[in-house]
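Batch job 17 of 40 flagged for manual review because the log was empty.
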Amino acid sequence: MARTVLPIFPLPELSFFPHTLLPLHVFEARYRAMITDCLARDKRMAVVGLKPGYEQDYDRRPAVYEIAGAGRIVRCERLATGRFNILLKGEARVRIDRELPSDTLYRMVEGTTLGETGAEREGVGALASRVTGRCLSILRAVQRPTAELEVAISGAAPGAVCDRIASAVIAEAPLRQALLEELDVERRLSRLAEILDDLHGRLQGKR
């Protein structure tokens, strides 16, 4: 596990997974400044969810979750208004260990890059296949296209399959955050399978 220093982009009800792409429209002055500085450095930043009750403290330093998604800006468009359209590529889970004193408009943290465990256990591959099948069945049931996701998960490692499916299909913020925080791939896949089975069952019940 490696130590890292990153700017953070706190957002409500959003969990940013490794192995995924996240488009963002950046309009607040403090985050426009952050993007400008990121582009001048290594293009790395973290996206972290805001804890419930953030509204009253949003303009200052509201509480954020301990686990965030770290990524790199892989595409950036600066608009005439000074705003940015960026595309982040998720690279790792990061545990925020402490917030650093900073004279910037945005927040800086020191954190630890977290690795996965359990990916090599027997049965993990079969679990990933089960999750994939259930996910595609759900998407077809609600008449959503599947081709892009099928390409994204084809040949991917079980942890990446889990993260890409969770990012694409799971809407509830608490569930997304729980999946982000689970480092054990087998447990993460098992939890995702339960969520998808429940969702599939509810869809079947509506027919």
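Reviewer: the log was empty due to a logging misconfiguration, but the result itself is present. The domain at 3-114 is CATH 2.30.130.40 (Archaeosine Trna-guanine Transglycosylase; Chain: A, domain 4). Unflagging and moving on to job 18.
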